[in-house]
Amino acid sequence: MEIYFDSKDLKCKTPFGAVGTDKVITFTAYCKDGVFVQRAYLVIYQDGNDVPLEYPMSYIETTAGMSSFSVDVDDLEVGLYWYHFVFYTEEGEFRKDKDGYGFQLTIFDEDYKTPDDVKGGVIYHAFVDRFAKGKDKNAIFIKKGVLKAWDEPLTLCDPDGVYRANDFYGGNFQGIIDKLDYLKDLGVTLLYLSPIFKSSSTHRYDTGNYLEVDELLGTEAKFKELIDKAKDKGIDIMLDGVFNHTGADSIYFNKFGNYDSIGAYQSMQSPYFNWYTFYDFPDNYHCWWGVTVCPTIKPTPNGFRDLITNPINGVINKWTSLGVKAWRLDVVDELAEDFVKDIRKAVKRGGKDKLLIGEVWEDASNKIAYDTRRHYFQGEELDGVMNYVYKNAILAYTMGGTPKAFKNAVYELVENYPKQSLDCSMNLIGTHDTVRALTILGGATQENYTKSEKNAYRLTQENYALAVKRLKIASAIEFMLPGIPSIYYGDEIGMQGFEDPMNREPMKWDDINEEVHSHYVALGKIRKDYKAEMCGSIEIEDDDILIMRRKAKKTITLIANTCDYRRTYPLDTDKYDLLTGKHIKGRLILEPNEVYIIEE
Which H helix or E strand runs over 30? Predict the structure, then answer.
């Protein structure tokens, strides 16, 4: 017996996708006429509960040789669910599911809201030490390491063979202030800064003191100046919240005695001792992925939680009150869920328009981490996540994948995420943790390369030209997808680089690829001019070319060709390519690795 049900088809399920608790969900399944159905059931399991909820389905009608059975469901609480259908006939029992498993259903709190003003915008991800160095006499270097000239090569490891991330280039708040007009021209509305708090490393993911900015960046007053001047240009600030671990060199752990405190490493009587897990005090302790400079915080130490979320003198309150718009939670899947909820409350005390994003590399609606199901979009957790799922789909398609595979990957999240969460998620094709997009798109591989060889590696002229074409497609798709596109500093000027630290070179201000840069400027303008459409519906066609439409009052369409032969796209009237301003007459001719965006 053949049963038809497609969770993405509104004839089968309404409303589409994730559903609020205030909505009635109608499920309709179809079977071929001529089979006598004795009874039919919708069977729903709440995630983690083996006891099914069974809903008898009613016969509705027979049309065009298909009989339909339907049921309304309105009694599901907030949670993650899996469902399937069972039809009993004179021939036996038949089940309809998805790939041998249940269809997913996300139920979120009806009051779950995310900030509207960030939707349709553009994020710029600045690795602060390497973005721009401005003149600031108050930005001082008093670290154990080396302060380099902007054009000096990266340090891959120290002479003893250890990489300490202690080569500094002096990027600072003043440098960012000096480049605000540059960011505005890119259409940036939210500036995401890598960690800015006092630390001993160049990346600052080993926090020394959450309540102080790093002295090499400038003063707190200078940071406030950055917030205010950025705001004047329509740009808000997002900070990186690293709350899973601190630095070993910190006021809290104080392994090296550089702080005027009694740290957990120094004494069991330290007020911070119970924040950490010691296996053999003091040198054997739990640390993030074995990195000894990053001792891990226990899941529920009250003192640490109070430090971060206290409504009066907590870390989030301090910097949000200063004018910070948003927070990105580093390794959010390693934080206790009730801690994430407390963080959300702390962020939202600054206003419902404040944004909270988490670092998640998989589908965040059903993620399991450390054998535990994580919940991020049910109403008390995150507003959005870093969308690595879309990154993988974009790059796979651009490198020769099929439009169909891309469509399936995109629609999976469109269906699984609440729309308000997807619209606030951070789309990307590269970050400080990944190989630069241009290097990947040029076909570079990491096989058999030493770190020194990777650092020296540059694409051939031919491969670079191909990578630029592919980057234009990848970035255009990124900017058109639901969510907020994020530009990793340097990608918009054609920088190359393998993984950390090669993807963290100083910004090459004197070597800007104008073709790439003007493309990103055009993408930013499209986001601004068509903000409503970027928050509207999405449709994807999966022929041999990719056609993706965003609709609201208007319709804008992306047409991309990654085939190795020319393709055409018919037009009803003459159009203009929004990326280049090119006038298109009659029909659109797409050369291999070419992309257009038009208003239809």
Answer: strand 25-32
- 548, β-bridge pairs: 540, 558
Please tell me the pTM assigned to this model.
Answer: 0.97
Cβ neighbourhood burial of 245 (10 Å; 0-12, 13-18, 19+) = buried
Amino acid at 292: T
- Judged by DSSP in three states, 472 sits in helix
β-partners of residue 488 are 125
Contacts (Cβ under 8 Å, ≥6 apart) of 447: none
Query: Contact 30/120 with Cβ under 8 angstroms?
Result: no
Of 297, 323, 317, the closest CA to residue 207 belongs to: 297
d(CA 594, CA 275): 53
Which residue, among 489, 499, 595, 497, has the nearest Cα to 547 in the 3D structure? 595
Torsional class of 117: left (φ above 0), alpha (ψ -120 to 50), beta (otherwise): alpha
Residue 173 has which token pair?
A: 């708040």
- Tokens describing residue 95: 């089940």
Neighbour-count burial of 169, counting CB atoms closer than 10 A to its CB (0-12 exposed, 13-18 middle, 19+ buried): buried
Cα diameter, the chain: 85
Distance of CA 458 to the CA centre of its chain: 27
Beta strand residue intervals within 184-293, DSSP E: 190-193, 197-199, 207-213, 236-241, 278-280, 284-285
Say if residues 245 and 200 touch (Cβ distance below 8 Å). Answer: no
CB 557 within 8 A of CB 597: yes
Tally of helices (H runs) and strands (E runs) in the chain: 15, 35
CA distance 428 to 489: 12
Q: Is the four-CA dihedral 349, 351, 354, 356 of positive or negative sign?
A: positive
pLDDT tens digits along 282-291: 999 999 999 9
d(CA 305, CA 300): 7
> What are 452-498's pLDDT values in tens digits?
999 999 999 999 999 999 999 999 999 999 999 999 999 999 999 99
Which helix (DSSP H) or strand (DSSP E) does residue 327 occupy?
strand 326-329
Question: Is cis: bond before 52, omega within 30 of 0?
Answer: no
